[in-house]
Amino acid sequence: MRQFRRASIAVAALYIAVLASICSWIFAYVKQPPVVRTRLQYVASPPRVEPPPDKPDFAPIVVKPKVIPQGIHLDVRHFGNYNAYVLTVSDPRLISIVATKYMGEVGETVEQFVGDHHAVAGINGGSFTDTNWQGTGGQVQGIVISDGKVISSAVRPESVIGFTAAGKLISGTYTLAQLKSMNVTQALMFGPTLVQNGVGQIQGAGDWGYAPRTAIGQRADGTVIMIVTDGRELTGPNDIGASLGDIEHLMLSYGAVTAANLDGGSSATMVFDGQLVNQPTDILGERSVGTALIVR
């Protein structure tokens, strides 16, 4: 029995030795595939490019006037707390008040008004219903007369800005009957009057604070002065806007004998020679308004 165990152990040892020899030969003479090690390299992503804040994009005007009549000039003025764009028009008969063609539904931008009438320039006009500052310009308020046609009327006297058939700018409180008797052919509702008979009407800065402004005035020789300003810090902390007193002084510096305030704030817009001149402060860019004053 002992001899059998010894023989079994010897056979097992021999088997292991042979198996080890075979394995050694395989690893020594059979070519193994190379081991491939992949190195990962982490590359930082480029910084994300964000659009500049409060810089809305404005679409180009579809219709650009071919010829600018003589006597029309644009000045750009820089003051401590606002920028002003001053358009002077020597012939007041070139100016018309126009109302949205979608009356009762929605207004139009000044660019659209200018394009509709193939005009040279335009600024926003008068009052419209603006409940919770969400008005679309479709509901004009007060008296509106366009090229002699009464678009909107009122029973009571209102603060009116307009032009007679001879091209004289008026600003004050009138009824529709009074305007007709004065041969007023262009009119809208807004205010207040800034300059009357060459005398400023605003005490100090006025009571309306600082904001983007739109205004219209006239010199003794008939030249019309249109002013639009930036504001609400759209172009920087030094761009808070103008007070009524600021606009009154600017009108007087241009020789105005009559001047009046138009709708400002988000509505303030000027277009000239196919370009949007100022930077409107409405979150969507240009605001739709009910009326505009255009230069044909």
From TrEMBL:
Transmembrane segments: 7-30
Pfam families reported for this sequence: NAGPA
The UniProt record lists the keyword Ribosomal protein: no
Keyword Electron transport carried by entry: no
Phosphodiester glycosidase domain location: 118-295
Coiled coil: none
Record keywords: Membrane, Transmembrane, Transmembrane helix
Record protein name field: Phosphodiester glycosidase domain-containing protein
Organism, as annotated: Alicyclobacillus hesperidum
Lineage, broadest ranks: Bacteria, Bacillati, Bacillota, Bacilli, Bacillales
